């Protein structure tokens, strides 16, 4: 009888102390299908030409900026390309 009473008491304590599980399982975004893809509109050639003009302008600006930067650095003396032999002081004859 004591064992049954202890078992019931333990069972009531454990069932009351177990926290409620309010877990929410994220399922992620809804699955996409081909119907969700954008529909092409207009001429592809027109869009291609416009994008190529933009890319070529960016390329030209980048090359121009690199040339200007290189020229300014060269004029400022930041680069030394060893065009000529370096000027070396004559060796002193200290053994006399």
Write up what this structure looks like.
The chain crosses the membrane at residues 59-81. Residues 35-86 form the Deltamethrin resistance protein prag01 domain. Keywords: Membrane, Transmembrane, Transmembrane helix. The protein is mainly alpha-helical and 96 residues long. The protein has a domain at 48-79. Helix content is 50%, strand content 0%. The longest helix has 32 residues, at 44-75. The chain starts with a helix and ends in a 21-residue tail after the last helix. The relative contact order is 0.04. The mean pLDDT is 84.
TL;DR?
InterPro entries: Deltameth_res_prag01 (IPR031973). By secondary structure, the protein is mainly alpha-helical.
Estimate the global geometry from the Cα principal axes: elongated
Please identify the structural class as seen in this structure: mainly alpha
What percentage of amino acids are in beta strands?
Answer: under 5%
Largest sheet: none
Total helices: the number is 2
- List the uncertain runs: none
Report, as a whole number of angstroms, the end-to-end distance: 120 Å
Keywords: Membrane, Transmembrane, Transmembrane helix
Pfam families: Deltameth_res
InterPro entries: Deltameth_res_prag01
């Amino acid at each position: 009888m004591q064992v049954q009473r202890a078992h019931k008491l333990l069972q009531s304590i454990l069932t009351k102390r177990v926290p409620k599980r309010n877990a929410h399982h994220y399922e992620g975004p809804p699955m996409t299908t081909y119907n969700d893809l954008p529909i092409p509109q207009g001429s592809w050639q027109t869009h291609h030409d416009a994008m190529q003009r933009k890319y070529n302008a960016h390329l030209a600006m980048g090359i121009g900026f690199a040339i200007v930067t290189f020229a300014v650095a060269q004029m400022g003396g930041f680069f030394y390309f060893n065009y000529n032999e370096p000027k070396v002081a004559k060796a002193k004859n200290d053994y006399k």
